[in-house]
Amino acid sequence: xxxKEKILFLxxxxxxxxxxxxxxxxxxxxxxxxxxxxxxxxxxxxxxxISENESDLLIMGSSHAIRHFIPxxxxxxxxxxxxxxxxQGQKIIFHTALQRMILKRYTPKTIILNIDPEWMYTSDEAYxxxxxxxxxYWNNRDELHSILSIKSExxxxxxxxxxxxxxxxxxxxxxxxxxxxxxxxxxLPLYEKMDKNKISKTDINTKNKxxxxxxxxxxxxxxxxxxxxxxxxxNNIGLYFVISPWVNRxxxxxxxxxxxxxxxADQYTIKIxxxxxxxxxxxxxxxxxxxxxxxxxxAVLFSxxxxxxxxxxxxxxxxxxxx
Amino acid sequence: MLxxxxxxxxxxxxxxxxxxxxxxxxxxxxxxxxxxxxxxxYGWWDWRFLSxxxxxxxxxxxxxxxxxxxxxxxxxxxLLFISVCINLGLLGIFKYFNFFTExxxxxxxxxxxxxxxxxxxxxxxxxxxxxxxxxLSYSIDVYNKKISPTRDVLSFxxxxxxxxxxxxxxxxxxxNLLPQFFKKRQFLYKDMSAGIKLIIFGFFMKxxxxxxxxxxxxxxxxxxxxxxxITFIAATILFAFQIYSDFAGYxxxxxGTARLFGFHIMTNFNRPYFAASVGDFWKRWHIxxxxxxxxxxxxxxxxxxxxxxxxxxxxxxxxxxxxxxxxANWTFVLWGALNGIYLIAEAVFFKSGRKGILNVFITFLLIxxxxxxxxxxxxxxxxxxxxxxxxxxxxxxIPEGADIVAPVYALLAILLLVIxxxxxxxxxxxxxLKKINHSSAKIAYYSIVVFVILYIGVxxxxxxxxxxx
Lengths: 323, 469
Prior knowledge:
Largest sheet of chain A: 5 strands, parallel
CATH class of the largest domain in chain A: Alpha Beta
Largest interface: A-B, 39 and 35 residues
Number of helices of chain B: 18
Oligomer: heterodimer
Shape of chain B: globular
Order of helices and strands of chain B: HHHHHHHHHHHHHHHHHH
Structural class of chain B: mainly alpha
Radius of gyration of chain A: 22 Å
CATH superfamily of the largest domain in chain A: SGNH hydrolase
Number of domains of chain B: 2
Helix content of chain B: over 70%
CATH topology of the largest domain in chain A: Rossmann fold
């Protein structure tokens, strides 16, 4: 009796598993086709960055990168090609993984990384959002495994399922199919001007916000930050860090996390372009969309200033070389 | 170990195969495997806290034996007192010490005397409220001679630490669960099939409904100063579904997992949002805890076999204690008190009970209102939210860009859940799935649920809400 029940169970389980894998495979093929056919939106930009882009200048970073750096301006001023590979809401561990995948295929001449003040602090969200890489995992396992396995050593197992790789991507793809999010070589402009009166109390009282919360550094993030620099150095890429302006924060460099990044950058002699105290932006509400993001007017001014700095840097390095 | 972790998906099949296919000839060895597996499962968080489970288990094991040996009322009371003191003592130290010292300090400050509260740096052991209540109920039942004490130490350890329901219930009674460890379990196909189905639907509730809703709820409740009335209403309704799906989902996974090992544990939720009164709601919500409080708090206080004022006070005290059980925070006490007031109002004004779809809706609104106090980080936030709902409707917060995806998924999943539960509540006997007793239809149905989970579930290994209690 017991034996019969067990055999029946195992038979059904086997059948169910076979059907499951078959459906997973076929549905997965369709889901992957849809995913990699996206023309606009976050995943389309990541896919383009990983598999097609060959620009001389690469902008990387979070929403500040996407909203503040206009590739067209850099292209005109520096006479080079440029693409903005910023990804909203992502932190250094993501950008290092993205950099690994990009460098596997081609080497840009210059990378600008916009650094955010809280990047070194421990953050569950930073690990959770690494799921954005799942669809790319098996084509880039060497680059991604060590990072994705920080939270689970067994990451290979669930990622064998196509459906798991494509988790949370369907509505995203549908949304940008019906309402395309057109970008300008990765740059996503914000056109509204910030209403000074609508700034909330929390937005005003952000000074040393993260430090006050008693945040601690995450060693993985520090390692990722160092790796980002080392990868650039190893490939002879000109690397610049940029600290973007905030409308009401002139204390970004006093944030312990930012101090840590600055000290690491100094250690590797990486140039930091710090605009956190720049008077052209501080309290200039008309250049901002919200306290931390420039609007298009702000981005034009900012991109021009950064491009000028890059020209100066290039000139001085030429001078040094010729001397 | 979390049910929604990759580790559990490796752990469960290993234990299952060992249990049914390797160690299935000897009951004691099977029980030993369950104890070992349960300790591994629990120790995955922090092995040091295993000592608390072991202490609690042995205290009640020996108290039970002691109670079985003596008829002397004084000695029996002393033994019960030992069990209550040690179990509630552990709970008091680990869960309530800081809460009470801080509350006393605040009280003294109110009277103009500044006192620095003694704080202990204590980590709350996962599930302590659950296994403490489970093991405590054993000693009380033995004391009340509802069950005989067991001398089978392995079965008793397995009863206290049984991994499917160890960390968040259902809080089983010894009278139901313990005897199942004494007799040989049968491998039955229908049990296995039922277990897997329960697990699948549990994961749907947790990963798709609860965790998707949580994204919007957290965005609002963690930034109460940046939102207004209509957004709080939306977030509170989503929270109602989040907490239900989180906990009922966990319970289904627990019940389903237990079924895979041949155990039948009690139903914990019975479509609570279809309740037509708050009284009815509490017969459907967290049933194992509600009945625990009924049997070990409400009835010993006198229940309803007393004067009306005393009866109403008994209801209120029971809910106050239930609120405090949920967490060491005044928000939970207020939440419990509010539910107590609802029940008192129903007892006084609606003696014949409430029925009908309108009452289902009213009950849902009342329960949602109480969830504000349950979810808010503190009393100030809770009253800010209530004030905002009543005075400042404002604009609905709609996440920008890709973040809109989470609430869209949450709403779709909630709709699906409501349809399934509506059908079960009102049309279960005419249910098509039951009529077409065809395995391929069932396989198709559960396959769809599995793929919905895989495609739109949230796989960030988030804690179950009730693990913190």
